[in-house]
Specification:
Elements lengths: L2 H14 L2 E3 H8 L3 H13 L3 E4 L2 E4 L10 H5 L3 H11 L8 E4 L3 H13 L4 E4 L2 H10 L3 E4 L3 E3 L4 E3 L1 H7 L4 E6 L3 E3 L3 E4 L3 H12 E7 L11 E4 L6 E3 L6 H9 L4 E2 L7
Parallel strand pairs: 4-5, 4-9, 5-6, 9-12, 12-14, 14-15
Antiparallel strand pairs: 1-3, 2-3, 7-8, 10-11, 11-13
Length: 260
């Protein structure tokens, strides 16, 4: 099937429902995930849809909609595990680490428990809290507030106020998209204040984003890509994109040894 034919079908599908996943498209067209990524990137560049982590949304839909956490946990699992291991090189024993919520944060928390003995973890993620208490002897500062069940996190004024009263040596954010042009962005509005609070209380800010999120877009812009200390991803990011980030002075970790 030619690319133009796939474009028409993708747009037709998005006229019938608000979002579609990359895996659905790969199965429907019998093509690789990389081909789907190129198709969605092309249509996004031509303003025909909104490319988001894990797939795409119709351009005229409510921009706060997103794929549920239950779906994201099973999406791009290998890439998330790879980047979680890559991120370990930025952690030292006795660090105080603030960890975001979401499927990537879950993999990162699992990796920390396997490789470290003495850390203090600060988080508003229910899943991360469970992992830390069940699989480690780390110190845990659980940040409470209003519980958001679909994302399994605490948010709101009480959460932000609690965050303002603590410090972290490093924070690890898990946004929806990273782009040189559009910056680091999220899909769910509740994360905006949480991410800003995490950045304010931390000496260093790192972004965890698997390769499907690199050069993707999301509706709510958080900051420039260069405003964080480094972006940790996986080997799925191609050399040309990595070189562009390097030329902009942005450290992009694609392996367990050195940034690009």
């Amino acid at each position: 099937m030619l690319a133009n034919e796939r474009y028409k079908i993708i747009l037709k599908l998005l006229s019938e429902k608000p979002s579609i996943t990359s895996s659905e498209l790969a199965e429907r067209f019998d093509v690789s995930m990389e081909t789907v990524r190129r198709d969605l990137a092309y249509l996004d560049a031509h303003n025909r849809l909104l490319r988001v982590h894990g797939g795409a949304m119709a351009k005229n839909e409510d921009k706060q909609s997103t794929f549920p956490l239950e779906h994201r946990i099973t999406n791009h699992t290998d890439a998330k595990r790879e980047l979680a291991k890559n991120a370990l090189q930025l952690v030292s024993e006795r660090d105080v680490i603030a960890i975001d919520s979401g499927s990537t944060a879950i993999e990162f928390a699992e990796a920390l428990c396997e490789h470290f003995r003495e850390l203090t973890i600060l988080t508003y993620s229910w899943d991360v809290m469970q992992i830390i208490t069940q699989k480690s002897s780390f110190g845990l500062r659980a940040i409470g507030g209003d519980y958001l069940p679909e994302e399994r996190l605490f948010c709101g004024f009480l959460t932000e106020e609690s965050l303002s009263r603590v410090r972290a040596s490093k924070c690890f954010l898990c946004p929806s998209a990273v782009s040189l042009r559009h910056g680091i962005a999220i899909t769910i509005k509740e994360y905006y204040n949480l991410h800003n609070a995490m950045m304010r209380i931390s000496d260093h800010t790192y972004v965890l984003a698997d390769s499907s999120k690199i050069e993707a877009t999301a509706p709510i812009r958080l900051c420039d890509a260069g405003d964080v200390d480094a972006i940790i991803t996986d080997s799925g990011v191609d050399d040309q994109i990595a070189q562009l980030y390097s030329e902009h002075g942005i450290e992009l970790y694609r392996n367990e040894k050195n940034p690009t």
